[in-house]
Design goal:
Radius of gyration: 16 Å
Strand content: under 5%
Order of helices and strands: HHHH
Bound molecules: fe (ii) ion
Largest sheet: none
CATH topology: Ferritin
Shape: elongated
CATH superfamily: Ferritin, core subunit, four-helix bundle
CATH architecture: Up-down Bundle
Length: 113
């Protein structure tokens, strides 16, 4: 842990950093899932959902950045490595065969929830 000038004990800072890191791994996974939907949607409502999934990706990307900064402010190291994300995220694996808009909406909705 790095030095921090925040008025919080090391114990509290470590706990907060661990929680933020866990949520950042989930958010990075969610970000990738939104792109998975954006790239692979087929069929009815393609244009609207293709754009919508990219919008979701953009919003989640901002969350990731905020979470990363909440990790570094109290002295932590934001770990955005893909290996860490794959190991730590608690989200369900996105099914590779997801095709229709309805299937993508259900899969992404479940991850968001
Ligand atoms: Fe695109």
């Amino acid at each position: 842990m790095h030095i921090s000038h925040l008025d919080l004990s090391e114990h509290v800072r470590k706990g907060a950093i661990a929680l933020f890191q866990a949520r950042m791994s989930d958010a990075l996974n969610l970000e990738a899932q939104a792109k998975q939907a954006h790239w692979n949607i087929k069929g009815r409502d393609f244009i609207q959902l293709h754009a919508f999934f990219d919008e979701v990706h953009g919003v989640v990307e901002e969350f990731v950045d905020t979470l990363a900064e909440r990790i570094t402010a109290p002295g932590g190291v934001a770990d955005g490595r893909i290996q860490t994300t794959a190991k730590s995220s608690k989200l369900y694996e996105y099914a590779l065969g997801t095709r229709s808009g309805e299937q993508h909406l259900k899969a992404l909705g479940a991850a968001l929830a």
